[in-house]
Amino acid sequence: MQATRTRTSDLLDRRRRAVARGISTAHPLAVARAEGARIWDEDGREFIDFAGGIGALNVGHRHPAVVAAVAAQLDAFTHPAIQVGSYEGYVAVAEKMNALAPGDFEKKTLLVTTGSEATENAVKIARQATGRTGIVSFTLGFHGRTILATSLNGKVVPYKQNFGPFVPEIYTAPYPEAARGYDTARALAALDELFETRVAPNRVAAFIIEPVQGEGGFVAAPFEFLRGLRALADRHGILLIVDEIQCGFGRTGTMFAIEQAGVVPDMILFAKSVAGGMPLAGVVGRADIVDAVEPGGLGGTYAGNPLACAAALAVFEIFEREDILGRSRTLGRTLRARLEALAAKYPHAITGIRGLGAMLALEFTMPRTGDPAPSLAQRVVAAAFEEGVITLTAGPKSNVLRILVPIVVTGEELDRGTGALERGCARVLGS
Question: 116: closest CA among 202, 294, 29, 245?
Fold first, then answer.
């Protein structure tokens, strides 16, 4: 019997024929429209979105203020290019980022289009400012998909496999995670060992670290480690670059996760939720460091596009008007309580809760090395999708189910989403 054709199946067939195989998709989903924390597919099915555009939608899909701001900008102009002439939106976003970033020193901002570009430019700035070439990143870190960003990534499959040779002078140190054998003291000691055995500290331009790892599995670095890393950087004249591309813009309960550690970095990378789903990213940091690069050394054709800047300015207003940070803290407490109850129900399969604030994940038992079968987390994600909630995996072996639900999610939507997740767990793990 021939399978029933649907608009979704037709689109997915077209995708298989037309789109590069290397672009993965977590779900057999064909999106028709979205609003807030909800998505409807081409066949009219409704889902609660716990993926949030992989962290790009903290203020939700199609927030009315973002839509209005983009429409107004569209009526004015779309792309003069900042390298050709200045415009209000770019300057206003830079001014706002300079004010929001921690630190009582003068700051400057560079706008680009993607998180990978932000990573690349921060490394260029660090090397120019210090006259050094070495960059230290951390295991299971993720900083993008361009070749320099890929060189910094701390996971091989699928991000580095067969893509070398990589950019030289990149050194990987253990991320502080006690479960993998590296508490704060041992992780800091590993950096001292790296300086003794692989690269002298006076050749290192910068450390780059995610305060809460995204693709690495929502592991939050201990605040003590982040403070120790700042002290180590200061001792050796090394810059500290903090990658807040996924964990920033209110996801953890503060505008930037690093604020909770009381640490002031030299540069912060931002993207994703800064512009409510529009492509915008950048670097904000100490003015004397950012200005080390000569005019023409930074930029990009679409960098700081006016439509994306208009969206970002709307997002800043939404944060203030709708108390997004307060709502994020409340969401984090509510979501953690529900995930803890779920973990308590399946102690044989769910080994813990990871993350910080509303950036939370369920950690499942680790698959055996070489096991080709889907992990428990992958199976639960698939089952939960069938129950009506969209989630994602992360972690070293896709053993983590991560949640990036829009912070503007309503109570009813959160109930529906967590209920679907609970039913997905029951289908895979037993009732």
Answer: 245
CA 189 from centre of chain: 27
Give the model's confidence band at 1: pLDDT under 50 very low, under 70 low, under 90 confident, else very high. very low
- CA distance to 4, 8, 34, 282, per residue, from 12 (Å): 14, 6, 19, 33
SS3 labels along 339-396: HHHHHHHCCCCEEEEEEECCEEEEEECCCCCCCCCCCHHHHHHHHHHHHCEECEEECC
Q: How crowded is residue 237: how many other Cβ atoms within 10 Å of its Cβ? A: 12
Nearest to 90 by CA among 112, 69, 106, 72: 112
CA distance 2 to 8: 16
Q: What is the pLDDT of residue 367?
A: 83
Give 130-141 as a DSSP string.
Answer: HS--EEEEETT-
DSSP assignment letter at 294? P
Residue 428 pLDDT more than 90? yes
User: Cβ contacts of residue 280 below 8 Å, gap of 6+?
Assistant: 93, 111, 113, 271, 274, 304, 305, 308, 309, 311, 312
Residue 3 clears pLDDT 70, i.e. is over it: no
CA 73 to chain centre: 27
In this predicted model, what pLDDT tens digit does every residue of 44-101 receive, in sequence order?
999 999 999 999 999 999 999 999 999 999 999 999 999 999 999 999 999 999 999 9
pLDDT digits (tens, 9 = 90+) for 370-384: 777 899 999 999 999
State the number of CA atoms in the 13 A half-sphere of 113 facing the CB. 12
357: left (phi over 0), alpha (psi -120 to 50) or beta: left
Identity of residue 402: R
pTM above 0.85, yes or no: yes
- CB neighbour burial string for 170-180, b if at least 16 within 10 angstroms, e if fewer: bbbbbbbbeee
> Any idea what the Cα angle at residue 247 is, between residues 264 and 62, rounded to 5°?
125
The phi and psi torsions of 232 (rounded to 5 degrees) equal -65, -40
Contact indicator for 64, 318 with CB cutoff of 8 Å: no
| Neighbour tally for 204: CB within 10 Å | 25
